[in-house]
Design brief:
- The relative contact order is 0.21.
- It is globular and about 70 Å long.
- The chain is α+β, with helices and mostly antiparallel strands.
- The chain has an eight-stranded antiparallel β-sheet with strand order 5-4-3-2-6-7-8-9. Strands 10, 11, 14, 15, 16 and 19 form a six-stranded antiparallel β-sheet that branches.
- The chain is built from six helices and 20 strands.
- Strand 6 and strand 7 form a beta hairpin.
- The two termini are about 30 Å apart.
Amino acid sequence: MGKMFPLVVLLLHVSAVYSDSHSLRYYMTAVSAPGSGLPEYSEVGYVDDREIVNYNSESGGVKPNVKWMEKVDPGYWEHNTQNAKVNEAVFRYNVRTVMSRFNQTGGFHSFQLMYGCERRDDGGVTGYEQYGYDGGEFMSLDTQTGTYIPTMSEAQITAQRWNSREVQVGERNKNYLETECIDWLKKHVENGREDLERRVQPQVKVSGQKKGDTMMLHCQVYGFHPRAVHVKWMKNGDDVPDYETTRTLPNPDGTYQIRVSAEVIPKEGESYSCYVDHSSLGNEPLNVVWEPSNPSVWVTPVVVAVVVIILLAAAIGGFVLYRRKKADYTATSSPSCVSAFKWISFRHFVI
């Protein structure tokens, strides 16, 4: 598949540099009309940042996206394909229902769901379920109380019905996220452990670009795995307060890259450096010094002892946060013989 979906979605972002936590999450997207290169319905499943399975209304079947997903039971694919087709019918209905609540009779509109679970390295678990409409948050599940919280007024009727004592959708989903979802996460991680937990050290390039009376410093961090990384600019050993960070982007080989830039006015006696902390570096993060006389410097951990200053830093505690992010969204499918698709078709009611 590999199509990019320019839709706003709610993404789980795992940012713990020193963490062996893992997450399992799925995205469903329905659009109101064909066109724009988007299938009318699509699903995608991820373990951490690896797309593991996908489905859409054009392909008509759940497909593996990584080799190690072929270790699942052979009946897995047919079972989840049938569940995906049920989900497709429900989501096509839902996008039309929400359009009617906004008094919309035409145009391009999207209805999305993101749900999943995470198991932290301390053994704790958490789940999440969020709905979106046209790029905005529509409704979400409060996993503490097992109730749905409407973000848009048009979602209130759904939240009231799903929270009712007769239906209690949230309680069932909360239980799934904290039990069965975690069980499937463990199975997928075991099957793909070599891929998911490999450690690849980053390469770092620092450069400066003259910009009038100021200098724009760039720190390109490239070729690292896993995705979680901490990068910042420092001046004389202290944090530079204002810097710009790109999203962490995937490379074709499965590694990642990120760029951090800071606009500064260099003065005599000041030293600027790019600080990079990544799980592959252990307790020795990189601190790559920018030299005004050398406009571009590449550093790799292999030669770090002779070209950079190594700082001893305390391990940064793991943290997990939810946040909405505007990002291109690749949509398609999800897995599980008795897993997520079964849960979705079992518990997913019409809006």
